[in-house]
Design a protein that fits this description.
Blueprint (H helix, E strand, L loop, with lengths): L7 H25 L7 H22 L4 H20 L10 H19 L7 H18 L5 H11 L1 H14 L1
Helix pairs in contact: 2-3, 3-4, 4-5
Length: 171
């Protein structure tokens, strides 16, 4: 039965959402009753990553820019936390802040790829992704913190130069 003004595509997406909620609710309920043994955090974060992938795919296929940024955030962040819960990423080497920083940076970079004329998106992409990568490289002892501080104090004005270039080139 269709409601007036509803499109078949919208009805299909609502139906799929309903089926997804039913399956998810039943799986969590069976887990609570110890009938089905799985770790709900693994399932939830994997579902978050998959939904981010779906949003990201729809952003590029259907040219829906509004799905692009949050699709990236859900895919990368949900995927990394799912890998953490599936024990692919070691527990001792996991911090949320640099991961979130890198994920947001990658999301800005993907937004830039979607619209290459908006060069200003590259600045937060480089800064946020750089912070996350540098933190993990320091944590895993690939770089020395004091060397990084020296280079950061010396070369930070180049970020202002890059911002100025981005603004000038945008015009």
């Amino acid at each position: 039965m269709t409601t007036p003004g509803a499109t078949p595509r919208r009805e299909l997406s609502v139906l799929l959402l309903g089926i997804l909620l039913i399956v998810f609710g039943l799986a969590l309920f069976l887990d609570r009753l110890d009938i089905l043994a799985f770790r709900s955090a693994r399932f939830i974060w994997t579902l978050v990553a998959v939904s981010g992938g779906v949003l990201l795919t729809s952003a590029f296929v259907q040219k829906k820019r509004r799905n692009l940024f949050w699709g990236n955030v859900l895919l990368f962040f949900g995927g990394c936390i799912a890998l953490y819960h599936w024990h692919v990423i070691p527990r001792g080497d996991f911090y949320v802040l640099p991961l979130l920083s890198a994920v947001l940076g990658l999301s800005f970079f993907t937004s830039y790829l979607f619209n290459p004329r908006n060069i200003l998106l590259l600045l937060p992409a480089v800064v946020l992704t750089g912070f996350g990568v540098v933190f993990y490289l320091w944590w895993w002892e690939y770089i020395d913190w004091f060397d990084f501080r020296f280079y950061a104090r010396t070369y930070w004005p180049l970020l202002l130069v890059a911002l100025g270039l981005a603004i000038a080139l945008k015009r």
